[in-house]
Each structure stands twice: as structure tokens, then as C-alpha cells.
Amino acid sequence: MPDIHDRIRTEVMDKERALWTALTSAEPASEIIKLSNSYANFLWPKKEVLTFQDEKKFRRALKAPFHRFDTYELQDVRIIIMGLMAATVTCTVDATRDNKRWRATSHTTWSQASDGEWRICTHQETRI
Can you give the CATH number for the domain in which 16 is found? Predict the structure, then answer.
């Protein structure tokens, strides 16, 4: 049986992939809201900090072509476990759209809710 830290790494990495799958879809807002705590903060390049306080504004900010990629790959993934109910994922994202390359560093902090689900607290991307 894997130890608790291995299980946390696996669960958080599955959630991080779900986040990036949502981010690269045509309409990511609904899925990102499901993956997040109600107080989550999002910091995307060339956008102000987004929260769910104004859900309409959040949804508008994520309208296509926001992050709609043909392909993406998470590289140099590092998962830091901060406790049994918190972890952070840092990585480099390499994506393409219409044969144009998009690269960024990414950081997502996850916390485990009372229902056992891992949810986003913060997510930040920095173009490189």
C-alpha cells in the first residue's frame, strides 16, 4: 500500500491535469469553478486577479480563445506537500495552438476540503 504522501501526490497530480484539461478547453469556467474553493484566486498573464466574487466577470475572462490549445504538456512537475490537507504544484507548461508555441511556469495550491476533494486555493501562470 502506498504511503500517504504518495497518495496525496497522485491525487493532486490528477487534479492538476484536470485543471489544465479544463483550462485548455473552449469553455473552461464551469469546470474550474467545480475544481476550486469558493475563495480561490487566479493570476493569469495580462489579467487582474480573478475570483468568484464576480462570477460573470470570471466567466467573461475565460471566454475563448483563452488558453484553447491544440496540445499541452506539463514539464518539470514538482509537488510539495505542506501537510495532509495542502499541497502545491509547480511546473512548466509547453503548449501549442495553430502551430504557435506558448510557454509558462505554473503554480497551483490545493487544499483538501471536508468532503475529501482537493480544490484550488490559488493558481498562477507566468509566461516565459
Answer: 3.10.450.50
As for how many domains the chain has, the answer is 1
pLDDT tens-digit readout, 52-107: 999 999 999 988 778 778 889 999 999 999 999 999 999 999 999 889 999 999 99
Higher pLDDT, 104 or 47: 104
**C-alpha grid cell, residue 78:** 514538482
Q: Determine the structural domain holding residue 77 and report its residue range.
A: 4-127
- Tally Cβ neighbours within 10 Å of residue 2: 9
Q: Which residues contact 76 (CB under 8 A, 6 or more apart)?
A: 90, 91, 92
pTM recorded for the entire structure: 0.92
- Mention every residue, 6+ apart, whose C-beta is less than 8 A from residue 115: none
Strand 86-97 vs strand 71-83: parallel, antiparallel, or unpaired?
Answer: antiparallel
Contact criterion met (CB below 8 Å) for 52 and 38: yes
